[in-house]
Amino acid sequence: MLNRLPKHTASINDMLADIGRPTPKAAAKALGVSEATLRRYLKHGAPRPVLLALYWLTANGRQDLDDELHYRASFATAHVGVLQTEVRKLRATIDLLHTMGDFGSANDPGLPGQVRRAPRPLYHNDPQQPPAPSPRPRWIGGGW
Length: 144
What we know:
Layout: H1 12-18, H2 24-31, H3 35-44, H4 48-55, H5 59-100
Helix pairs in contact: 2-3
């Protein structure tokens, strides 16, 4: 960011003229210095931090800010376009995976618009029907 500071600025007299020639009292207050210090700056030149503070209030400083904002807005617009393209590709991939088959995995995300199958009950809760016998494991009474 430091490389974006202006390399050259106008004199303090020119910058104060550009921002509407504020009174010495108002300019000194805005810069946080005394009126005597401001008069010294006007006579002998101001230090660079003072010139940089005033620069952003001038027409040139505001133009630099406008250019930066335009650049950032253009970059953001292009970035949104790239992200939208990526979303379209990912949705196409998801659609392809859905056509391959739905095998009801335990961690099925349940995407919007997709009807999930009800899981099979783990326990028999219907008192009208007897529970189905559970299959015997192969290792009981039958060997491998």
